[in-house]
Amino acid sequence: MTKMPVAEAPVNGNSVPYDLLIRNGRIVDGSGMPGFFGDVAIRGSSVVAVGKVDGSRARRTINADGLVVAPGFIDHHTHMDAQIFWDPVASASAWHGVTSIIMANCGLGLAPCRPEDHDALLKTFIRVEAMPRPLLEAGIPWGWQSFSEYQAAFSNRLGLNVGALAGHHPIRRYVLRDDANQRAATDAEIEEMVLQLRAALQAGALGLTTDRNPRHAQEDGSPLPGHLAEDREVFALAAEVGRFGAGAIQAGGNPAIPPVDWYGDLSLHSGRPVLWQAINHRWSQPDQWREDLAAAARQFQRGARAYGLTFALGIESVRAMSPYTGGFEELYFQSAGT
Prior knowledge:
Blueprint: E1 6-8, E2 20-27, E3 36-43, E4 46-51, E5 60-63, E6 68-69, E7 73-75, H1 83-86, H2 91-94, E8 98-103, H3 118-126, H4 133-139, H5 147-154, E9 161-164, E10 166-167, H6 168-176, H7 187-203, E11 207-211, H8 231-244, E12 248-252, H9 260-270, E13 274-277, H10 288-301, E14 306-309, H11 315-321, H12 328-335
Parallel strand pairs: 2-5, 2-6, 7-8, 8-9, 10-11, 11-12, 12-13, 13-14
Antiparallel strand pairs: 1-5, 2-3, 3-4
Helix pairs in contact: 6-7, 7-8, 8-9, 9-10
């Protein structure tokens, strides 16, 4: 990382109107307008001037010539649920300018969880997220049962903004126990899952996440809990997000399982935005992305807020960018200082 030149100005009463002045950078402000060259002045924790700013009375000046100045990025799809405990700055995100992350996607999550179900939830992460069992066993400081308690546990020493969705898999496991990935839920069990979701939303969960991706499985290859859910269960949970009046629904799968229209139905039923994934180019199906885009457009035409997501880089490109050749274990032990 290149160290930017910094200049210090003496403090003299009110003669220093800015605590920090970032000069000569290319400003990309997040509004959608093209980037432009200028200065950004900061007082306290607020941006107070953007453009051509008089820097003669700034307490501290950074010359950002040749660099981009932008607000922190929001990464709305991460799986830092466990990693945030041993890597509270979410290093891989922060190093790329991300200052806010959303955890618990694809139906996954670590709460609610009974003490006897710790291993069951680990099994949902190991294969889906390629996270080694020894890493999870060493890095997760269990001690919570409710979503509220989990949120309190990870919020103690964060280095960036963190929010979490309520995961369908842990909620289903909490209610159905060992039957969670064996059968459909009864009406009474669905009602209990709705209550668990309600408690999570009231505690600060940013919405619901569910998953029907047929390539996702537990450590032993068995189905994930949410994959046994019938539509009436998923739609009952989605309706609870709608009753809460805030939050989004993240749904994983592929364009065939379930079909794109299903995501639109989920949005219309709940009245909430649905983020579904993913629209990708596949060489085995070179025109599928066009069909997916057309299907996504149909959802908007019928009034659904169902947003198809995609990837900016291929998975192999992302792997090639990783600075950790040793994988997650190396990241954990470096973060722990061992």
